[in-house]
Amino acid sequence: MLIIGIAGGTGSGKTTVVKKIVESLNGKHVAVIPQDSYYNDTSELTMEERRLINFDHPDAFDWDLLIEQIGMLKNGQAIEQPTYSYLICNRLPETVHVEPQPVIIVEGIMALANAQLRDLMDVKIFVDADADDRLIRVIQRDIIERGRTAEMVIDRYQKVLKPMHLEFIEPTKRYADLIVPQGGNNLQAIELLKTFIAHKSKNETL
Predict the structure, then answer these.
(1) Cα separation values, 190 from 13, 21, 111, 130, Å
(2) 183 in the Ramachandran plot: left (φ > 0), alpha (ψ -120 to 50) or beta?
(3) Distance from the first to the final alpha carbon of the chain
(4) Of the candidates 11, 4, 18, the residue with the CA atom closest to the CA atom of residue 73
(5) Greatest CA separation found in the chain?
(6) Residue 51 — φ and ψ, nearest 5°?
(7) Which residues are bridge partners to 95 per DSSP?
(8) pTM for the model
(9) Cβ contacts of 153 within 8 Å, gap of 6 or more
């Protein structure tokens, strides 16, 4: 089994990189585990209290559950992956059944921030992008998918996203085996990555 960690700032192009990797494997023998699914359960909080949570801080994640479930997959056990809704800022009752696969991709802004999680990974990747490019993508995504206004997104970027990126996400570059600059636009780096993973996964399935 090949466990790949893919980290990077919000809007850096992580999802694009993951999508291209999955496509290169024809969607077979690969499972993608989004770190966003492992935000803490906040059922005990009111909606107003939930909206005040800093989702770009390491304390927002249920690290114990994420590490436990990646460990289970590595040991050949299926998991019930939690699901999360940004609309209600909480987990949903539904889970996603995930079977062990030759390739497991753990993707999220802080996928490389926890030492125990990193120890479970065979390959660690950091997807990098200019701050301006990330901001544009965040504005587009949050307006369309999360019902926020441009003013809300920019205010959150200045007060939360930027400082948290500099404090907690950017430093995890040092743990990466490969840094992909220009995010999902770096076709050469993505092609090299796809070739490497396809080769390794082929060996895994023999």
Answers:
(1) 11, 8, 18, 17
(2) left
(3) 11
(4) 4
(5) 52
(6) -65, -15
(7) 82
(8) 0.85
(9) 138, 139, 142, 143
**Per-residue model confidence as pLDDT tens digits over 91-139:** 899 999 999 999 999 999 999 999 999 999 999 999 987 776 777 777 7
pLDDT one-digit tens code per residue, 42-96: 889 888 888 888 888 999 999 999 999 999 999 999 999 999 988 888 889 999 9
Total of domains in the chain: 1
Q: What is the CATH number of the domain that holds 17?
A: 3.40.50.300
Residues 198, 199, 201, 205: is their CA dihedral positive or negative? positive
Residues 6+ apart with CB under 8 A from 134: 9, 10, 11, 12
Domain ranges, residue 86? 2-205
Q: What is the pLDDT of residues 137-176, one digit of tens each?
A: 777 777 766 667 777 777 777 787 788 888 999 999 999 9
Sign of the Cα pseudo-torsion (190, 195, 197, 198, in order): positive
**Euclidean distance between CA atoms 55 and 7, whole angstroms:** 15
The contacts of residue 158 (CB under 8 Å, 6+ apart) are none
